[in-house]
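fyi for ur records
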Amino acid sequence: MSIAIIFDLSEQIDDLVENKAPFFDVLWLYYKNFVLFYGNLFSPLLTFLAVIFFTSQLASRTEIVAILSGGISFNRLMWPYFISATLLAAGSFYLNNYLVPKANRERIEFEMQYIHTYRRTLNQGVHKQIAPGQMIYFDKFNSKSNIGYEFTIEEWDGITLKSKLFANYVKWDTNTRVWTLENYYLRTFQNGEERVTEGEKRDTTFSFTPDEFALRIDDIQRMDVNELDDFIAEQRLKGSPNIAYYLIEKHTRNALPFSTYILTIIGVAMSSRKVRGGIGAHIAAGLALAVTYILAMKVSTVYATNAGLDPLYAAWIPNLLYGVLAIYLYSRAPK
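which gave:
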């Protein structure tokens, strides 16, 4: 993580200096949470390398042979690894679902203020459901000034249109928390009759705010497990096209801690035998396996977001594949 901080700082230093980021905030709000987020994200792989390094040292000193020769079974030898993996997996589960999201709020807010100041502000062709039977449309929406152009909102009762409101220009007032419509045109339908209302200006409230149009995919990293569940339910109701991304985030938080077990078993099975090349050979093989594991995670994620694969399967397929490999290696390790 120290190396990661050095690389990140070399990349962000220009933005931090240009935007005059306070030194204390850089350390406490950004890099403290940077280490917490990425350290937890890669904790199964870091655990995997630690297991290989430690077990390879035992094997190179012929200590594992001595343990097994003393009457200790290979299964009994694995108990300390299982206990450690349980503690690490439980800690990772808590971090993923509760503590890291809180840390991400500070980190992402810092990035928005001092690093990613170019955040996109213009959304075009916004079309979404905001409540059952309520559909809205913006030709353009500027999330910096909270102004929308060519606005339409429709209310439906099943397949029957109840009302349709047009406005050339709408603006959100952050103080009063109301929308101001300009050059509006309202059509209402009741009992087969149409009623039309026009005007130049009107203040009103809707069940949505500008924050919904400025949402980025990585903003869900700031939500704990309960907030994420509520957010996904809300986005399903609104017909969001990004549901797959949100579900992948949810399922990955649960799948990632479980991978600690799988990689621990693989690490012990790979490095418990004394081989020519010693620790270096084991670590090289472990790194190669870690790269393929990350690749499998990325491929399954792409399939979920672009090819319709269920996000639950996308999050767990790498664990299932490497779980089978772990069982095979574990069965052969005592021999």
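The two ends are 37 Å apart (CA to CA). thats all i got for now
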